[in-house]
Amino acid sequence: MRKGVITFAAVGLVASLGLVACSQPQEPEGTDDKPKVGVILPDQASAVRWETADRRYLKEAFDAAGIEAEIVNAQGSTENFLTLADQLITSGVDILMIVNLDSGSGAAALQKARNAGVKTIDYDRLTLNGGADYYVSFDNVEVGRLQGRGLIKCLEDMGVQNPRIVYLNGSPTDNNATLFREGYDTVLQDKYKEGWVFVDERSVPDWDGTQAVTLFEQMYTAHGGGIDGVLAANDTLGNSAITVLRNNGLNGKVPVTGQDASTAGLQNILAGDQCMTVYKAIKKEAYAAAELAIALAKGETPANLTTVHDPEANRDVPSRLEKPVAIFKDNVKDVVDDGFVTVAELCTADFAALCEEAGIS
Ligand code: GAL
After folding, report:
1. 140-279+328-357 to CATH, choices 1.20.1290.10, 1.50.10.10, 3.40.190.10, 3.40.50.2300
2. Of the residues 85, 199, 249, 309, which has the maximum number of CB atoms within 10 A of its CB?
C-alpha cells in the first residue's frame, strides 16, 4: 500500500517498543504495511528474457525482501501498457517500474505515476523524455562494443579479408537499440578505415523475428549475397539472419552476432551458426532494480549511482548499470555455470554431443 515512509517509521517504532503483541488489531488481508511495487514488462516476442528471466528474478528479489510485487506483461500493446499502468497505480503501488514499448507510451505511464505520487524506475530501457526517477540497466553502449569486437574476432579468426558487413539493428523505438548501434558502429568504424566494407543496415520494428527475416532477405538480395559478416543486435534477430543464410547454404560460413544468451542463441553458437552472443546477468539487473525500489519505498536516497544521459530531456538520470559479458563457443559453459540456463534446457537431443564437446554436462 502507498503509505510510504510513515508506514516504515510506524512499524519501526512499534517493533522497537516491543508492542507487536497478539492483542494488536490485525489489518485485513491485502492492506498490510508491505510496500508494493508494480512492474510492467513489454512483451514475449522480442526476446524470451522478459518472461523466462526478468520475471523470475524480479519476483525472487522482491519475495526475499518481503516486498509485494505485481509483475504484468503488456504483450506488445501500448494500449495494454497504459491500462496496466492505471490498474497498478489504482491498486496502490508505491513504485512503478517499467520496460517501455516506446518512449511515448512509456512517458505517458510515468506521468500517470507521478501524478499519483508514485516513484518511477525505468528498467532496462530508458524512456526518452520520460522523467523516470531512476534507471537500472546494463552498460548498453558496452553491449554494442562487445558485439562489434566479437564480430571482428570471428571474421579475423576465419581469415576473411576486407569483409562486407551488414547490421540488423534492434527496434527503432528502443533507446537500447540506439546505444547498441553506437557501441558496435564505433568499434567497426576503425575497421572500415582499414578496408572493411559497411554494406547496409535495417532496423527491425519491435525486434520482431519474422520481420527480421524479410528485412535480412532484402539486404541479401539487394547485394547479391555479398555479405561476409552480420551484426545482429540480439539472438532473435541473429536467428532470423541464420535462417536466411541456411536457406542459401551459408550458415556457419558467415558469422552472426547476437545478444541475451537465450537458449536458442547458445544452441546456435554450439552448432557454429552464430559466432557470439552477449550475456547479461539478468539476476544482477533484477536484484539491483529491486534493491533500488526497496530503498525508495523506505524513503531512503539510493547511493552509489552513476548517470545516463537522456538526450531528449537533456537530463542525467541517476542509474545503476551492470556489466555485460561476451560469449563465444568456448565460454558458453559460463552461462550454464551462472545458472542462467540449465543443462537440460540447453543440451537437448540435437545438442547433447555439442554440449559434451564444449564441456557442458
Ligand atoms: C532490449 C534489451 C535486450 C533485448 C531486446 C528485445 O531493450 O536490452 O536484452 O531483449 O530489448 O526485447
Report:
1. 3.40.50.2300
2. 85
